[in-house]
Amino acid sequence: MASSLAPVLITGASQRVGLHCAERLLGEGQPVIVTYRSERPGVQRLKDLGAVTIQAEFSSQESVMAFIAQLKDETDSLRAIVHNASQWVAETEGEEGDAFMRMYNVHMLAPYLINLHCAELLRHSKTADIIHISDDVTRKGSSKHIAYCASKAGMESLTLSFAAKFAPAIKVNSIAPAMLMFQSDDDAEYRVRTLAKSALGIEPGAEVIYQSLRYLLDNPYVTGTTLTVNGGRHVK
Ligand SMILES: NC(=O)c1ccc[n+]([C@@H]2O[C@H](COP(=O)([O-])OP(=O)(O)OC[C@H]3O[C@@H](n4cnc5c(N)ncnc54)[C@H](OP(=O)(O)O)[C@@H]3O)[C@@H](O)[C@H]2O)c1
């Protein structure tokens, strides 16, 4: 890596929010390492912009530890870790345990192991951050998506514990977004119903997460918090 700046690691950055944040950081001259699971056009885009890309699957302890070893071959320092990789798996009858474990692995086990084993890389940077991308749904629970919500709530609990453990060298925070970007197959009725849930009523896109990330990276007095980015859903 040619730059003397320590890189920011973003997990699951082949598309949408992770891809946007990686592109914005690279545009500012900040070196970035990203993980991706599937080969998508975004991976090549990031390579062309100078990102280091690592294929990683966070589905088991073994695969997470293998990723950490690969990461340490690439760099001996990190400016920040952004835990963005996420899976939304419906709880279908007979497969609930499998769905729970898949989301537990990506939302809790992977951040837990990466934080523990990569703290030494962050400590080589003068300023260091861990940022967990959680979900606003943890504020009130979800009768329909119990496992997804529980695993994201667990991620917010990691924020509190790691903020205490790693202070003052490493700040640790969460960003909890509500709907940012629709999926291309979301129908009109779903879009109207979803937009009506927030006070601000817009589909903001990925830039609001980049802005939140920037705020947390730049602010020296915030740790152990969850930044709500929900368009005012809680006041509606
Ligand atoms: N978009 C929203 O409206 C919204 C709302 C609330 C919260 N959030 C949160 O914001 C973050 C970004 O959202 P997004 O919509 O950009 O997410 P997304 O499109 O679903 O992308 C997440 C990425 O995570 C990667 N991933 C999933 N499971 C993985 C695994 N087991 N191992 C390794 N990588 C895995 C996927 O990689 P591949 O594509 O390479 O397979 C995927 O590209 C997520 O944490 C999400 O929960 C988003």
Structural class, please? Answer: alpha/beta
Helix content: 40-55%
Bound molecules: NADP nicotinamide-adenine-dinucleotide phosphate
Spatial gap, N to C terminus: 47 Å
Rg measurement, Å: 17 Å
The strands making up the biggest β-sheet line up spatially as: 3-2-1-4-5-6-7
Number of helices: 7
Q: Which whole number gives the mean pLDDT?
A: 97
Run of helices and strands: EHEHEHEHEHEHHE
Question: Can you offer a commentary on this structure?
Answer:
The chain has 236 residues and is of the alpha/beta class. 44% of the residues lie in helices and 14% in strands. The protein contains seven helices and seven strands, in the order βαβαβαβαβαβααβ. Strand 4 (80-83), helix 4 and strand 5 (128-133) form a beta-alpha-beta unit. The radius of gyration is 17 Å and the shape is globular. Residues 12, 14-18, 36-38, 40, 56-59, 84-87, 106, 133, 135, 177-181 line the site of NADP nicotinamide-adenine-dinucleotide phosphate.
Descriptive labels:
236 residues, alpha/beta, 7-stranded parallel sheet, 7 helices, globular, binds NADP nicotinamide-adenine-dinucleotide phosphate
Secondary structure layout plus pairing:
Layout: E1 8-10, H1 16-27, E2 32-36, H2 41-48, E3 52-55, H3 61-74, E4 80-83, H4 96-123, E5 128-133, H5 146-166, E6 170-177, H6 188-195, H7 207-218, E7 226-229
Parallel strand pairs: 1-2, 1-4, 2-3, 4-5, 5-6, 6-7
Helix pairs in contact: 1-7, 3-4, 4-5
